[in-house]
Design brief:
Layout lengths: L1 H13 L2 H4 L5 H18 L4 H13 L1 H8 L12 H25 L4 H25 L7 H8 L6 H6 L1 H5 L7 H23 L11
Helix pairs in contact: 1-3, 1-4, 3-4, 7-8, 7-11
């Protein structure tokens, strides 16, 4: 339900995006549309956060998606202007600040929940080693670049938003979101430590592939 309403909402907003190009209130109209999508989805017993995430993904990639779906469409008409980027930067700052405060409040104190979130990160990191090797085979990346892609495992806002879905539908108990927040924090720590270690590597070509 969330994905469907989000896709329909994004399709409807796309029709008016070219007309709002350069308008200082364009981003305000976009926020109002996303609130409407959230409200409609909630009234239909769907997940409003998933609807907004879906709509935002489609809107953010409209400049590349619309010309493929509608031959002859002007891709530049769907590119965000400087005022929208500035507004987005301010909104992102507030949302991220709130999100990290929320992580701190909901971070588990139980060792079981901490490990429940930390262990999948280590498994993900181990799985990324062969995955990155296969995905970048023949690209001529250096050993440093290859390992940088490997340690790029941080989870963030999307994981936090999606963690509410199983609880909303009764598939998981109240311990599930704190475990996901443990996963997010662990993945960020692994990424930070990994980048620090990879930064000390030389940029020599990877000849082991």
């Amino acid at each position: 339900m969330g994905v469907g309403v989000g896709a329909v909402g994004a399709s409807a907003v796309l029709f008016v995006v070219p007309a709002l190009k350069g308008n200082p209130h364009a981003y305000t109209a976009f926020l109002a549309a996303m609130l409407l999508v959230y409200g409609v989805t909630s009234q239909l017993n769907g997940n409003g956060a998933m609807a907004v995430l879906t709509a935002a993904l489609l809107m953010g990639n409209a400049s590349s998606l619309v010309p493929r779906l509608i031959p002859g469409a002007d891709a530049q008409a769907f590119v965000t202007d400087q005022s929208a980027r500035a507004m987005q930067s301010q909104m992102s700052f507030f949302i991220k600040s709130f999100f990290f405060v929320l992580i701190g409040l909901m971070f588990p104190t139980s060792l079981r929940l901490i490990l429940l979130g930390a262990v999948p990160v280590l498994l993900l990191l181990a799985a990324r080693i062969p995955a990155v090797r296969l995905a970048t085979l023949g690209l001529g990346l250096s050993r440093k670049q290859s390992w940088l892609l490997t340690v790029a495992v941080p989870r963030g806002l999307a994981a936090g938003v999606l963690s509410a879905i199983p609880v909303h539908y009764g598939f998981a108990g109240p311990d599930f979101p704190p475990a996901i927040f443990s996963l997010i924090v662990t993945s960020i720590l692994v990424f930070c430590l990994g980048v620090a270690l990879v930064g000390r590597m030389s940029d020599e070509a990877d000849t082991s592939a």
